[in-house]
Structure formats: structure tokens, C-alpha cells
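FAQ: What does the model actually see?

It sees only this:
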Amino acid sequence: MPLQKYMSTKKQLGTITILVKDRQQHSVDVNRILTENSRLILARLGVNVARTCVTGCTAMVTVAIEGTTKEINGLTEKLDSLYGIVAKANIVTEE
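And it is asked to produce this:
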């Protein structure tokens, strides 16, 4: 199997960290995308960054994920394209 083909189908472990700038307004879109891609998600941790905040609160979500590099990057790009959301992936490759 050519190396390029192997790398595109090999499963990777990683995380996606998602900063939600207004949790009340934007969490529905984030949750919809995560639900659509739930087959890739191993675990999820949500953090309320501003504990005493009532409205317009910032939140951070970290998702442990397993998928191909293309799947992980695709999900990250989809999340990052949402207004009020910043998403970054960290892929850990086993060698």
C-alpha cells in the first residue's frame, strides 16, 4: 500500500479544543456538529471559563477524538468556521 494511501486511512488519536465565546448563543451549533460526528468522539470535557457569568459566558470544550487525519481536520475546520467559535486540533501519531 502506498504511504500516502496508508496515512489517509490510518486512525489517529488527538484532541480538539473549542473556545465558545458566548455559550448561550453558540452552544447549539457546536453540539449539533459534535453529535453529527459522535462516532469519532471518545470523551468530552466542558469547562465554564467564567464561573460567575450569567449571560454572554465564555466556555471551553475539549474533545478526545479518534479518526483519520482528514476526519479530525475536517471536524476542526467545520467548528472553527462557526461565528464566535475558535477550534484547534492536536493530533498525536503513534509511531
